[in-house]
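Minutes, project check-in

Agenda point 3 was the complex the collaborators sent over. CS summarized: two entities, 632 residues total, and the question is how they sit relative to each other. Sequences were read into the notes so everyone works from the same version.
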Amino acid sequence: MIEAQGLHKRFGKTVAVEEVSFTARDGSVTALLGPNGAGKTTSLRMLYGLLQPDSGKAMVDGTVAAADPLAAQQRLGVLPDAPGLYGRLTAREHLRYAARLQGLSAVDAETRAAALIERLGMEGIADRRSAGFSQGERRKIALGRALIHDPQNVVLDEPTNGLDVPSTRAMRRYVRELADGGKCVLFSTHILQEVTAVCDRVVIIARGRVVAEGTPDELLARTGKTNLEDAFVQLIGTEEGLGA
Amino acid sequence: MTAKALAVFAKETLDAARDRRSLTSALSFALFGPLVLAMALTTIAKTSDDAPLKLAVAGAGNAPSLVQYLEQNGVEVAQPPADIQTAVRSGDLKLALVIPRDYGKDFRASRPARVELVHDASRLGSSTPVRRVEKLLQRYSAQVAGLRFSARGISPEVASPVRLSEVDLSSAASRAAFALATFPIFLLMAAFIGGMNVAIDTTAGERERGSLETLLVHAVPRLDLVVGKWMAAVLFNLFAVLLTLLFSFLVLRWDRLQQMDIPVALSVDDALRLLALLLPLALLAPALQMLIALFARSFKEAQTQLSLLMLLPMIPGLLLSFQSFEPKPWMRAVPILAQQVLMRDLLYGKAAVPAVQALTAGATLALAVVCIGVTARLLHHERIVLGR
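CS then shared the predicted structure for the full assembly.
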């Protein structure tokens, strides 16, 4: 379970996150939906311990990320904004490295890497160097890396950004499978379609604040609209920065 | 050493070994230093004053006493080629002395008798023999002038109000020692260049590629990350230092230099001592470079800054290459500078004091530990990690 309580973060004079509170439960997919620049990435970074909140706290299975980042990261799989691959390493080497960094033994690292290569359909690229891989292939490696230690909680920052249709569909399928397997999945997006396709719950964030939270149906009922797009536009107050 | 630090070390070593830039920067320098040393030493041997000077003399029969004087002073008189000017211009001949036909007539009449020294001043290595011949001719001229003054009842001393006598104590051997004094600088640079690319690539490079954030979301203590990366850079450093030392060792034991009577052979013992001395430095350099590179915005910027940093230790190094420079006690505790002092002591055959060596090594290692610690702390800073 992932909880954000009153997160607040500023960089110099710019307030990136004003007040963000939400809960992402086990066994469901929670979307952090908001236009570009709403504070999604900054909120997630506080969650996985890369940024320290100025006030409020982010918790992973009850562990405060800022207080004990290593324990939080142990229970967290993260697919950051940029895949950040090493061009001279193969897909398998990336997974192996991530496994060792998360504290798996050499033998377990090998087994887990092989299992994820199969599950994510990376057999064809497993032993090729990653320089020159397509966006979809890169994202698969990054996802495999996030899942390498079989974490209970998975955070994905715009996981389908820049992917073609087949890769996007595959990514959504993986996300769905994770939640159906009992994991807590939190992902950020600015794409409405994504929400209807995979999400159980939506947290809408705009200008650094959570403006609404609930299931898609609850949000429709609250706004009195018949389609989600109209509901979001009303909640956010603008159409700016949203993707179809 | 934790398993996670070892995992980082293994990954960075593999990554760097596949990076041609890292390998060439470690390798090329290891060859460069010894090569420069070999060239310097052979040049010194070639231009040595002590070697007999070969001089082509045209019209030797016109001035038998001058030629005899030259031969008495270590000049080997040779037959000139048919076309002297062409031979000199093409470089086949370094210099030639031309004695015109009327030399004898003028000489006997006590008029200035003309001789020509043909050479090409733009050619490297021609100035030393030219200077030697000029000096000999002047001396001969002064000697004859003296005789002529005496014959006329005047003391020759009247004609020389000032007498300059140059005392040049340098010999080929001592100049070789001077060239050899630059040798520690090459070793030192190897310890800085060998792992530099790895140090930059694993810090500034990692952030520039956007992989630093991904790396930091894993449950790894920052210190493990820094230590693993540092060890990989150290490995490349040691590789470069070892190669430089090995090649230098081979150059200094090269038969051709031995025949030239230049007493510069490096014993196996001395080579090992140099290695022991460089070891703490090979550990410090990557730690220092990683710390600095972490502040750079890009790989290129880090490279520029670290290249400038390289020049810093070279300044005291050049100072120290003069034999007369006497190191102060505090220099023993300043990393980089201290190693240069120690290396110089070793090459000049001064006995090593274990306490002094321990002080130098200790100060160097302490600084390395501080650098690693600070780098690990910096990885907690948002500005450093996200490059704001």
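Noted in discussion: The radius of gyration of chain B is 30 Å.
Follow-up: revisit at the next meeting once the mutant set is ready.
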